[in-house]
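Appendix B, example 12.
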Amino acid sequence: MTTHLPDESASAIPSSVIQVRGVRVHNLKNIDLDIPLNQLIAVCGVSGSGKTSLAFDTLYAEGQRRYLETLSPSARQYLNQLPKPDADQITRIPPAIALRQNTSQRHFSSRGLESTAGIESGIQHYLRLLFSASGQIFCPNCEIPIAPQTPETVLAFIKSLPTDIRYQICYPITLGEQSLSEIIQELKQQGLNRIILNHEEYQLSDDAAAVLAQADARDEEILVVLDRLTTRSIDEQRILESLEFAFSESSGQAILLVMEPLENQATGIPFSIGQQQILRFDFSADLSCPQCPLEFAQPEPQLFNFYSPGGACSHCGGAGTVPTTTGTNTIEICSHCHGSRLNPSALAVRVNGHNIDQLGQLPVQQIPDWLEQFSKGLSESEAQPLTPVIREIRDRLSLMIELGLGYLTLNRTRSTLSSGEIQRTSLTSLLSSNLVNTLYVLDEPSSGLHPADCHRVISVLQKLRQLNNTLLIVEHDAAFIRAAEHIIELGPEAGKAGGEVIFAGPLEALKTSEISPTGRFLNSTETAPLKTEPGQPASDWITLTNATRNNLQSITVRFPLRQLCVVTGISGSGKSSLLEQTLFPLLAAQLSATRSSQIDAGSVSLSGADQIDEVILLDHSLTGQNPRSIPATYLNLFDEIRSIFAQTPDAWLRNLSPGHFSFNSKSGGRC
């Protein structure tokens, strides 16, 4: 039933369709199609009928290839280009973007660090920009704001002091390689006559001998007094000159000694000169705390990136967890970063009262209010450069909420998300690009979704289509097929018996098609027969008590043994948290001491495991990571095949080993 359309000249091709002629990719049998542009199109059919070959290996590959050809050769050399599909003609295909079905594959950086919901959605990138541009550093010990000081900011502080307050402008020095006598000589040459050493004030012209007697001064801080003033009369020019000299002589430090008590001493350090108690205020051109020795890094995007050595916690390397010291193959929260994965400098930066880790712990549905409150506090000049960043964050948050992910936190690691959550989080990044006149190719967007969640994704896809985009979805779900404006069904069977176009057209025509299995399914009210005879009641159980992983609310669950047991619920309700992240690792840890459990059991208890000999997790993870892997290597059949070839007479004559028949061996048979 391969569909062939009559040959047409280029001028006769409708401008509103992608014309595909003579496609022979994989099992596709020289098919012809006219695919309407700016519509939501579903590609359906039995598994193995050629849907992926058409959608990804033909349309996406050609759309991407043609777009990349517009780039310069020097730019293309750094990009992985898909091979040109085997087709006679493909016309009017727009640039293409694809979202493939690898939802349960854990995403790691080159340093082995796992991705999060914030990274997958693209929101984390824009939060890093926001925090680096508008963040205020706060000392975690003293809870005071930290900012690089200048002579002007110190002058403003002096002007804020009460009237008739005496103060001294100083700068610190240490001996280093110089002797006390050399320091004294240099200060005298500069016309400086007063220092403070060991909390005693000396005049070098009169007390040089007393200063030289300070044998232990090498490790002591020496304060050089530049000027002694009062706030009764503010000579700005004189003050600025003294402060500029202090900053230049001490590598960006100036010290203000206030000789009278102040009502607000919160930011001053108690200090003494002889018997007199005064206040000391330290000012630094660097990002350091005036009250404690903490120093901070300049906020920049990489500071808030735990993938970067400049932002990652030095203790856990950005993982947020470390192996336990008990030797039980479990992990525990890093005691230094408390699971935030970031270093202290990154966590010291706050925007609207939150650091980036605290913000990542909020449910997504609460962040728009935080963002709105922050935006209202910006002046016009402050808001203008931040507008694009704030808009991107707001749009992506809105899309996550619209997709039913408002309960998630941005810090949730990818491995703790269900397949439906991963699918919708990835859709957030893809669909937030706001591109127009683009071909989007999606692989089963319904995967992992509860039927109650499907309408959310369909609604978002329809909005994307309204931006003059063409959406091509490979789907089996009836709700998505019914929502499509154009449907392409491939078949009739899988493999060599497939690769033909069974149907191409609108939904109503599909329902009346006599040869379309999908049409008969959509048009039928019959349901599959169900087993009516009850099975044997369960006599043995595995009981999981006080499960609290992710959103599990200290639940107790009993699983019957020797029964088919189904765990169901809407996407994000805790199914994966219960089975994959609680039950399986606990069973694995109990059954074999050599198997690693990725959770600390804590108060979770498991009973009945002694009735189990082995536990196997069969999930949606990719079978292998090698792009050259084939079904025979997955099934471990290729080892035997290589051995058989190596034992042939011709192989013996040429001294060929099994490795010579492997395309994965550098010294073997690889081309």
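Residues 380-402 form the longest helix (23 residues). The two ends are 39 Å apart (CA to CA).
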